Amino acid sequence: MSVSQLFEEAYTGLKSLVVGLGITGKAFCQPQVTVIYPKQEVDNLSSFRGHVELIGKDDDPSVPRCVACGACVKACPSNCLTIQCPVPVKEGDEGKPVVMGPAPQKGSKTPAVVIVDFSLCSLCGQCARACPVDSLQFSDNPYMVRLDRKEFQIDLLARLRRMAAE
Amino acid sequence: MTPDLMSFDHPLTRLVVGLLCVFAFVGLNGLVLVWVERKVAGHVQLRPGPLHVGPYGLLQPIVDAVKLIGKQLAMPAGADKYLYWAAPLLAFAPVTVCFLPLPFDPALAPMRLNTGLVLILAFSGLGVLSLILAGWGSNNKWGLLGAARSVAQSVAYEVPLLLSVMAVALTAGSLDLYEITTQQGAWPWQWYGVKNPLAFFIFLVCAVAETNRAPFDLPEAESELTAGFHTEYSGMGFGLFFLAEYASMIVVSGVAAALFLGGWQGPFLPGILWFLVKVYAILLLMIWMRWTYPRVRFDQLLNLSWKWLTPLALIDLVLVVIVAGFGG
Questions:
Q1: What percent of chain B has pLDDT over 90?
Q2: Is residue B65 assigned to a domain?
Q3: Is a pLDDT exceeding 80 seen at residue B143?
Q4: Could you tell me if residue B114 is inside a domain?
Q5: Mean pLDDT of B209-225
């Protein structure tokens, strides 16, 4: 390496040092982005990923669009979704208690039980992508706290009815 | 009113009072600097920094200190008992001595020595010894690596540091910091830092290396060596190393202020305030640099020191000799 190259390198190095100080100096003067939680709350939640929730039908928000096809259950890599629907009654079995079975099932077009185990969920979103009727989306509660891991088994149908009632 | 330390006639009385003041000064400034450091780090990264303990998080360092004091002092198995416990004391004690020749104000120089500069350089060089003892004594591979690094680092940066200081001492014709300060005036163009910016720059770079701070914090290097030489230290063992680091930061900033920025001299304000303003300006620059630059690699530090700073400092020294020879 020639001497002139050496000095050129030293010059660009020194210049980059000054530029670096300028960048951090500017950042020092900028407003902070931290949200200090109990005093402030985050406002833009459009990209937040909470646990998945069901989307209601346009004409009746308390009934999910879900057709109990089971695509989301198959797509979930963590096996955290459970969808059950009533097994169709066979001939001669009328009047007996309803038997529930895993979706999909012939003749069933609505789910009777939709449970997401949030303690297993990794929020990958494969279920929402797999859904053929766009019935799943991420919820937007960033402050979810539970005292027991069993409480993370969230009944999505009940949640949808509660949300529709509000 | 500035307190007049010179009114104590007996040098021993002055020394004891001065040492007590230095301990109080180091402790107080250590706390303030920890707070400043964390605040600057926060704001640079768009965070608020310490916030909840006291107004603006001002009491956070005190809480941290209480926590450190309350912790158990542990020693790893197979460690050298005497070296292990001597190291933190040896890290802290020499730094406090370095405050004695620093002239804070015409009336507030704990000890006037005609070789004050030599004393500071000698005792700050002792700090490296404590790092070696800590790394060797704790029977830990990271500690040992940190110690080895600190040796090579000190060999590399102390040469240009001494040369840049020598250039100023030659210009002033004295090794007494008080004398060197009075040779400069109140205005920036009378300062040695402006008359001889190359020496000032070299001194600043070497001062960062001397205090083992980022980007030259190779002996600690938390991402490579856990914590380097103080990996095994807990509680106040670590606390003393920590305090020594901040104390030596204040020392090198004080020396830089006295050598290059006219010390206590300045218009309008009392001397002690000017001195502290200059010291804190340099400290802020060091903190700012820490949160800007990544740590240099080991060979990069040695290359910088041997191939750039040492020759440049030598050239600077020769120029100073020529100018001093013709001028005075």
A1: 11
A2: no
A3: yes
A4: yes
A5: 82
DSSP string, chain A: --HHHHHHHHHHHHHHHHHHHHHHHHHHHSPP----TTT------TT---SEEE-B-SS-TTSBS-----HHHHH-TT--EEEEEEPPPPTT-TTSPPPEEESP-TT--S-SEEEEETTT-----HHHHH-TT--EEE---TT---SSGGGGEEEHHHHHHHHHH-
Cβ pairs A/B, distance under 8 A: 35
Mind telling me how many Å the CA of B283 is from chain A's nearest CA? 15
Number of domains in chain B: 1
Q: Is residue B2 part of a domain?
A: no
Assess whether pLDDT exceeds 80 at residue B328.
no
> CB-based contact (8 Å) between A24 and chain B?
yes
- The residue range of the domain holding B245 is 74-327
Q: What is the pTM of this model?
A: 0.77
- Interaxial angle between packed helices B11-44 and B81-98, expressed in degrees from 0 to 180 and rounded to the nearest 10: 100
Q: Is residue B1 part of a domain?
A: no
Q: Residues 62 to 91 of A: which have CB under 8 A from any B CB?
A: none
Q: How confident is the model at residue B8 (pLDDT cuts 50, 70, 90)?
A: low
- Label residue A35 by pLDDT band (50, 70, 90): confident
Per-residue confidence band for B327, with pLDDT thresholds at 50, 70 and 90: low
Contact B46 A33 (CB under 8 A): yes
What ipTM describes this predicted complex?
A: 0.73
Residue of B nearest to A30 (CA): B46
**Is the CB of residue B261 less than 8 Å from the CB of residue B193?**
yes
CA proximity to B256, closest of B319, B318, B211:
B211
| CB of A5 less than 8 A from some CB of B | no
